[in-house]
Write a structure and sequence with these properties.
Layout lengths: L11 H10 L7 H17 L5 E6 L2 E7 L5 H17 L3 H10 L4 H4 L13 E6 L3 E9 L3 H15 L6
Length: 163
């Protein structure tokens, strides 16, 4: 299990390892409900003011806006999810790759920053033997914490944790 310290950002290699490890055997509507509900429970435990979203193949399967979240969180969700769907990788990994090259995503990607945001919090739903079929996204915390919350939920969902 990988737990990130909120103040520390993971390396490109650590983020890539998370993606290799967090591959789903399948992903149904019921799975979306279970994963989304798990994220809600984790966020409530921490009193995190987040919005949570799960999309598959262009369809929203789960959405929750917890106390303290705002409409702006939904806009961030959309922008981060678009990065995942365009690049096939976590929004945090995409942004970290740009930073590792000394580049700024907003300037170097040539994509509209009002439409795309390479900030942590959106993670690809990758199904074994299929590829990326959607994304699970959290918005409302600093980007490393948004990302870490999604990773922790996926680890628990896949049974990769001891608790």
């Amino acid at each position: 299990m990988t737990r990130m310290t909120p103040e520390l950002s993971p390396t490109v290699e650590e983020l890539e390892a998370q993606e290799r490890r967090l591959v789903l055997p399948r992903f149904s509507n019921e799975d979306a409900w279970e994963l989304g509900s798990l994220l809600v429970a984790l966020a409530r435990e921490r009193q995190a003011p987040v919005a949570i979203d799960i999309h598959r193949a262009g369809q929203q399967l789960f959405h929750a806006a917890l106390e303290g979240s705002a409409p702006e969180n939904d806009a961030w969700i959309d922008r981060k999810r678009r990065v995942v769907m365009r690049y096939g990788h976590a929004s945090f990994l995409v942004g970290t790759r740009f930073r590792a090259k000394g580049q700024n995503f907003d300037e170097s990607s040539r994509l509209d920053p009002d439409v795309y945001a390479a900030h942590g919090g959106s993670f690809p739903l990758r199904v074994d033997g299929v590829g990326v079929i959607g994304a699970v996204t959290v918005s409302g915390l600093p980007q490393a914490q948004d990302h870490a919350l999604v990773v922790e939920a996926l680890e628990r969902f896949l049974g990769l944790t001891l608790d």
